[in-house]
Design goal:
The structure is a single chain. The chain has about 260 residues and is an alpha/beta fold. The protein folds into 2 domains: about 160 residues, Flavodoxin domain (Rossmann fold, 3-Layer(aba) Sandwich), CATH 3.40.50.360; about 90 residues, Alpha-Beta Plaits (2-Layer Sandwich). The strands form 3 sheets. Strands 2-1-3-4-5 form a 5-stranded parallel sheet, with helices on both faces. It is globular. It binds flavin mononucleotide and iron/sulfur cluster (2 copies). One iron/sulfur cluster binds next to helix 8.
Length: about 260
């Protein structure tokens, strides 16, 4: 009845997608970057959750939506996950929504949920626990809306559309961030970063050296997930959070002990 697909470079969206799957009694959540849209099985309602990048859906999500056949689902819901749910992010799903409407899909839920910020700086502990509590309530409410096909009533102020337009420059700038990345000597050549980069931007040379290409989306996944913390940018050292980001730390309360 429901199909859930999530795009979550650093874990927040995957955490919410897991929660939603419990409320909707769905046993499987598909990682968007490993899913070929044309191979998804027919179902009544497709739910796409994605992390917001520069007030937009990331390019991996746009590509997925473009590749979605027009006759596979009856309804589609969109849940954009940012670090706030205010006007700045209001137009985040606008572009993919238009693509889906052109394919004659009916959009049911179109909502934004706030979760902790995953780059530059960590939010304070108290703010994070409040965000997580609110996010749980929002996911519960959204699951009820999805079950009852209650269409979201979303206002789209002009200023939201404006920042959304400006944000479309970011994917180009992000490519240069990728060129700055390198793996230190502590790299154990495990290949995790190569397998998990959503844009297939990382390669391992025959000698085991890690090489970054020009397709980066600045998602932070390789930096935070590397088991030896070997990946760092040469110049923009302020962009990744200093001690990394892990939603599991906050769920388990481990950050308090750091
Ligand atoms: C490159 C980049 C751009 C981002 N841009 C935004 C943004 O425009 N608005 C926002 O609220 N959060 C933004 N964020 C923060 C994340 O989208 C947000 O923390 C989200 O919860 C991360 O989800 P994930 O852990 O599933 O990747 C950005 C993060 C990255 C890495
Ligand atoms: S994830 Fe880290 S340790 Fe593993 S290959 Fe990549 S850089 Fe090396
Ligand atoms: S190279 Fe790293 S930061 Fe860039 S898209 Fe791939 S995983 Fe994300």
């Amino acid at each position: 009845m429901y199909t859930i697909v999530q795009f979550s470079p650093t874990g927040n969206t995957a955490y919410l997608a897991g929660m939603l799957s419990e409320y909707l009694d769905v046993d499987r959540v598909n990682a968007l970057e490993h899913t070929i849209p044309s191979k998804l099985k027919e179902s009544e309602h497709l739910i796409i959750l994605f992390a917001i990048h520069a007030f937009n859906a990331p390019k991996t999500v746009k590509r997925f939506v473009k590749g979605l056949p027009s006759d596979r689902f009856t309804k589609i819901s969109l849940i954009a996950v940012g670090c706030n749910d205010k006007w700045l992010n209001c137009a985040a799903s606008n572009e993919i929504r238009k693509i889906l409407e052109k394919k004659a899909y009916q959009i049911v839920v179109d909502e934004i949920i706030a979760m902790p910020l995953t780059l530059i700086m960590s939010f304070p502990e108290e703010m994070i626990s409040n965000l997580l509590m609110d996010a749980r309530k929002r996911i519960n409410k959204i699951s009820i809306d999805i079950k009852n096909s209650i269409v979201s009533k979303k206002k789209l102020p002009f200023k939201s559309l404006l920042v959304n337009r400006v944000g479309r420059i970011e994917p180009f700038a992000a490519r240069f961030f990728g060129l700055e990345l390198y793996a230190k000597k502590s790299c154990i050549k495990c290949g995790l970063c190569v397998r998990e980069c959503p844009e297939s931007n990382i390669h391992m040379k025959d000698n085991g050296k890690i090489k970054f290409g020009f397709k980066c989306m600045m998602c932070m996944r390789c930096i935070y997930n590397c088991p030896t913390k070997s990946i760092i940018p040469r110049i923009s050292k302020f962009i990744p959070i200093k001690n990394g980001y892990s939603i599991e730390r906050y769920i388990s309360g481990g950050a308090e002990n750091d």
